[in-house]
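Entry 14. Ran structure prediction on the chain below.
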Amino acid sequence: MIWIPLTLGATALQVSRNALQRSLLGVAGPWGATLVRFLFGLPFTLVFILVAKLVWPTAQGQFGVYFLSACAIGAMAQIAATAALLVSMQRSSFAIGTAFQQSSLPFTALVGFFVFHDHMSSLAWCGVLIATAGLIHLSWPKRLEGIRDWTPALLGLTSGACFAVSANAFRQGGLAFDPHHAVVSALVTVAMVQAIQTTVMMIGLGLFDRGSLRGALGAWRSSLGAGFFGAGASALWFIALTLSPAGPVRAVGVVEMPLAALAGRRLFKERLSLAQILASAVTAAGVILAAIG
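Output, structure tokens:
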């Protein structure tokens, strides 16, 4: 059951990373802020691998087609998910944006059912419905001069769907590389994913958005912090996903919601209404039911 404290540690690091990324939106934009978690996280991940190899010197993996394909699919899905999450946070709030991200668990259940033919109990499907109802309430847009802004809701759901794809892909990659050494396999998967993401985003921003690239590199102090927290969070998430199915891991990760609310209150002076707090609780209950069902 060691994956439970690993997941709890990952959620705490992830909240810190999200907060630092959000602070970079003004100078680097959503794509530049997305890049920093990969570019500045990769060096830390390589250090983690060296340490893991010292502890498990006999670990040997295979860079097969299945492993590389899983890493590539997960990497691209996570790029899209992260950018959508950051913009959702920018247009709603830090805590609400994080709550949108929790839709990845219901989406993970649906992907598992339709793609991998996983069977779920009635309790699990009830959890999916409850979580979906809570998310609909959270994403209901405020009236702005008679116009309802659906952008945060759509971006949040897009983020959740992409995170669901990436979580399943990362688990498959970790299991494919070296199933007998979960820690080393997970860390190598993190490094491969970060290398793919860094390469793709550096090329894309260099061609189409050099301002965001310069902003991300220029704010290297905050970027370095986001990279460290991102690498630590990803390492713990990937290890947990290698040790346990994605559903229970994401369920434990729900503790990120109250942590995000506290961070949003302290760092960004954001307040949640009573209705939003209740909807967050309903969402969390549904997510937990979906996982344990």
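The mean pLDDT is 82. Will compare against last week's run tomorrow.
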